[in-house]
Amino acid sequence: MKTKYLILGAGPAGLAFANTLLKKGETNFIVIEKESEPGGLCRSTDVDGAPLDIGGGHFLDVRRPSVCKFLFEYLPEKEWERYDRDSRIRIPLLPNADSAKKKEYELHHPFEANIWELPSALQKRFLESIADAGCNTGEPKPEKFTDWITWKLGSEIAKEYMLPYNRKMFGGNLNELGTYWLEKLPNVSYEETLESCKQKKAMGSQPGHAQFYYPKKYGYGEVWIRMGDALGDKLKLNETVSKLDCMNCEAYLSDGGVISADTIIVTVPWNTMELMWAPSIIKNSIKILKKTSVEITYLEDAPDTDAQWIYYPDEELSYHRILVRGNFYKGAKGCWSETRSERYDNYDQLAITEDQTTDGEVAVESQDKRINFHNEYAYPVNTIAKPQAIGKILDFAAKSHIYGLGRWGEHDHFNSDVTVERAVKLAEKLLG
């Protein structure tokens, strides 16, 4: 089989690229997707009468109007509800130096902008730590991840929140992570934080998704299903690519078929297929790329809160965040938690099934009927070696008209709005 464009993966990257081709009049393409429906990590399912996003919480940020306009062509704006973000942190802290037992406090995210919500004694403790942070005292920027976090945010925020939360997300040895991806964090100004405590309101820049859209009657996966429908028979579901011929720009399917293309767009993880003719330096670079797997678990009981999601840095709890779906989908019950798979065996509130789930497969626990989804590829990990490794892979592949795109093709933690924007731009570039 021969085609002009072959797109591997029907997540946000592959769907946005393919639909851009279609909108520009290019119909000579094929999209290959291993699952039975499109959407990738943004797929949704119905649980207990309301949607649950099986890859974790996904929302459409309002900050990229061109992306919103693009997606509204498939799921019109009137079918979305717009929300102001309310995300919070629940954190155990010693109330004072004489305390023997920690107490749980809740404050809004980001931590540094909402210290004013803590008792005055704790405010003072964190404010003094911020004043002594290296970025505020002129100390040189450190190279190690743990030192960088302390330098940027102060020792108390690092110790009580950022370091334990990142250990829950990425594992114990945080110094394997690079610091290049943290540069987008704004400096934590002592003066600004002090002023927020005086005025009792958040100061400084807003986090991502400060305002966002979520479908009124569907999960987030609905927009991607409609984009898949727009492709018609050009979308091939339940198909897997086992090998990529980097010399002849061909893809070998698991069922024995071969597709030859002028251009191949890779939106799937590079290590899920064999790269034929690739030199050892490229194959070794692929081995360097690391990822995090997560479990998404539905819980019947939701906390009494107005927050849409809550972060939990407490390392005694296995999950690192929960999403309270009734606060972004009207009438929904319960919530879902997100847990790094390595921590899931010790899940605090769940009876574990003995059967390992595959991507997107539902496992219903017989004891309490809770529902879990396993996502083998959830987050790319920004290790020290990653930029050089993915750079070598992308440079090598591009010479054969093979291009990496999106969270897995570029091995970068892009949200769906960023992914769509990059997909549209790449399609327009290749179309000339």
Describe it.
By secondary structure, the chain is an alpha/beta fold. 28% of the residues lie in helices and 25% in strands. The protein has helices spanning 12-23, 65-72, 120-131, 134-137, 145-153, 155-170, 190-199, 221-230, 280-288, 386-398, 406-409, 416-431, and strands at residues 2-8, 29-32, 44-47, 50-53, 60-61, 80-84, 87-93, 103-108, 211-215, 235-236, 241-245, 250-253, 258-266, 274-276, 290-299, 309-311, 321-323, 335-340, 362-364, 371-381, 402-404. The strands form 4 sheets. Strands 1, 2, 10, 11, 12, 13, 14 and 21 form an 8-stranded mixed beta sheet that branches. An 8-stranded mixed beta sheet has the order 8-7-16-17-18-15-20-19. Strands 5-9-6 form a 3-stranded antiparallel beta sheet, with no helix packed on it. Helix 1 (12-23) packs parallel to helix 12 and helix 5 (145-153) packs across helix 6 (155-170). The relative contact order is 0.20.
Defining key terms:
alpha/beta, 12 helices, FAD/NAD(P)-binding domain, 8-stranded mixed sheet, 432 residues, 3 domains
